[in-house]
């Protein structure tokens, strides 16, 4: 019950902050996302974290396409350190723009769907960036727990050009393999 209250408060604050955001042009999403190819595990390399994610270590976002066309999502991480308690959240993704598959609503609680924009996705589907038009949160993710520094810097430069305050972006510590973490590709 406490989790529902916390998530409800978070969703309400997110909606309120959206109404107060600065006027920036909308982010340009990628032209097309092959949804089956996008599914699977994505390690969170860096982000502007939500309050839930602050102090996250070994953060992984996993996606699975369900028969009804929604995306079953599992977000896991260790809170406060590599030996911290494991946290798991299971929002549901809804593809809102089927012509590109790059605009989703991510629902933690009904009926609120938070904006989820696939802002960048490399051709190999090994790096992606999820953003929001308000530039309040961002997630740099990869299929591996780390990425080459040059690739990371290019992504950060792309975010700066899109209007993000890149000083707010924080690296998410990753150290693998981690005992007790299951491979969620199955």
Describe this structure in words.
By secondary structure, the chain is α+β, with helices and mostly antiparallel strands. It has a single domain (2-171), classed as Beta Barrel (Lipocalin). Helix content is 19%, strand content 35%. The chain has an eight-stranded antiparallel beta barrel with strand order 1-2-3-5-6-7-8-9. The chain is globular, with a radius of gyration of 16 Å.
Fold blueprint:
Elements lengths: L1 H19 L14 H4 L1 E9 L7 E10 L5 E9 L6 E4 L2 E4 L7 E7 L2 E10 L5 E5 L6 E5 L6 H13 L8 E2 L15
Antiparallel strand pairs: 1-2, 1-9, 1-10, 2-3, 3-4, 3-5, 5-6, 6-7, 7-8, 8-9
Structural class: alpha+beta
- The figure for the number of domains is 1
Regarding quaternary structure, what we see is: single chain
Percent helix among the residues? 10-25%
**Beta-strand percent range:** 25-35%
Relevant CATH superfamily: Calycin beta-barrel core domain
- 3D shape: globular
Low-confidence region ranges: 1-21
So how many helices?
3
Largest beta-sheet details = 8 strands, antiparallel, barrel
Overall average residue pLDDT: 87
How far apart the termini lie comes to 30 Å
What's the CATH class label? Answer: Mainly Beta
How many strand segments?
10
SSE string, helices as H and strands as E: HHEEEEEEEEEHE
